[in-house]
Design brief:
Radius of gyration of chain A: 31 Å
Helix content of chain B: 10-25%
Number of helices of chain A: 8
Strand order of the largest sheet of chain B: 2-1-8-7
Shape of chain B: globular
Number of strands of chain B: 8
Structural class of chain B: alpha+beta
Structural class of chain A: alpha+beta
Order of helices and strands of chain A: HHHHHHHHEEEE
Largest sheet of chain A: 2 strands, antiparallel
Strand content of chain B: over 45%
Shape of chain A: elongated
Largest interface: A-B, 60 and 47 residues
Largest sheet of chain B: 4 strands, antiparallel
Strand order of the largest sheet of chain A: 1-4
Radius of gyration of chain B: 22 Å
Number of helices of chain B: 2
Strand content of chain A: 5-15%
Distance between the termini of chain A: 37 Å
Oligomer: heterodimer
Chain lengths: 180, 158
């Protein structure tokens, strides 16, 4: 790969958008070509600046007044079903249609029972039950690192193992330190 | 009568042999004979915002228990079937590369070799035996305004 082929791929390389083979080719070229390596660092710096700026802008947006404006509109469109049901019920009562009372009570009762059955059937499994079924236990045979520090963490409930690496201080390529 | 009893015994014996053969075959194909489905998920964990990506719901308990970030975003997901003792390369954000090689299946565990590289620089090289269908996490590299968490899952397939 030469510079002309590598340059358009550099932003995609940083975003991880390239095929593994292309990534390897760009990485290899960048380590040999000071110009491309420099451009790669500049793009990386630019991406960091943009991400920081966007994050700051998003944090600065005040959304507290949004619901105050949207809420009344939602209420104006349609009252919730229980309010409509209550209104209908009071209308029926005020009109003195006593003959409807047993039928309405039966319908409401049946709807309640049906809702309970459906709720029981569709209730999702509790997260604790799901988590207890998960077993992510892993036996670590060896770890070789080329980074500043390595730590092992374990989540006790699912036995999930985490290899935490800190790559703030780059070491020399190929200089693996054994932390077994 | 004794003839009918003998036929029944023969039938039961045949059924038992048949079931055992099927079970034995199943055990073999569940293990080393097939391949491994390797699942890779790249997650950016940060303190910008409060969003938890709903696609990560299966890992929510682990993330909240292990890390102290307020936001988790899945930025890349890939599943690939990898043959035993063959290497597979997975591109990750930030110019990182993950190499995975399933080595063997033993005692319900998938033995894997993993290497994470940043460009041409290898960061970490590890060998582990992960419970079949389990998930292992590699975390810590800086990415955007947070850190990258790489979830690596492995399941044997026929």
């Amino acid at each position: 790969m030469n510079c002309r082929e590598s340059r358009p791929l550099l932003p995609l390389f940083l975003d991880g958008e390239l095929e593994a083979r292309q990534m390897r080719a760009v990485a290899l070229h960048s380590t040999r070509c000071p110009g491309c390596e420099d451009e790669l660092r500049q793009i990386e710096r630019l991406q960091e600046l943009v991400a920081t700026h966007v994050a700051q802008q998003v944090e600065a947006i005040d959304l507290s007044a949004l619901w105050a404006r949207v809420g009344p509109r939602l209420k104006a469109t349609a009252p919730p079903w229980h309010e409509r049901l209550r209104e209908w019920w009071w209308e029926v009562r005020s009109e003195g249609r006593r003959g409807w009372l047993p039928v309405s009570a039966a319908v409401v009762g049946a709807a309640g029972v049906l809702a309970m059955i459906l709720w029981q059937a569709q209730r999702p499994t509790e997260p604790a039950q799901l988590a207890s079924a998960v077993d992510n236990s892993a036996i670590l045979d060896s770890v070789q690192s080329n980074v500043d520090s390595v730590a092992l963490l374990r989540e006790p409930e699912t036995n999930t193992l985490v290899l935490w690496i800190t790559d703030d201080v780059p070491a020399t390529a190929g200089d693996f330190g054994d932390v077994r | 009568m004794s003839c009918r009893g003998g036929s029944l015994a023969t039938l039961m014996l045949s059924a038992w042999i048949g079931c055992s053969a099927v079970a034995w075959g199943q055990e073999r194909t569940d293990g080393q004979d097939g391949a491994v489905e390797v699942r890779i998920g790249a997650v950016v964990a940060s303190n910008s915002g409060q969003a938890f990506d709903q696609r990560l719901i299966a890992l929510q308990r682990q993330f909240t228990s292990l890390f102290a970030y307020s936001s988790y975003r899945l930025i890349r997901e890939e599943r690939r079937r990898v043959a035993w003792k063959r290497e597979a390369e997975f591109s990750l954000p930030g110019g990182r590369l993950l190499l995975v090689m399933p080595r063997e299946y033993k005692d319900g565990r998938v033995a894997l070799s993993l290497m994470l590289a940043h460009g041409t620089r290898p960061l970490v090289n590890t060998a582990l035996a992960l419970r079949n269908h389990g998930t292992f996490l590699v975390a810590g590299p800086h990415h955007e305004d947070g850190v990258l968490i790489i979830a690596i899952g492995a399941s044997t397939v026929r």
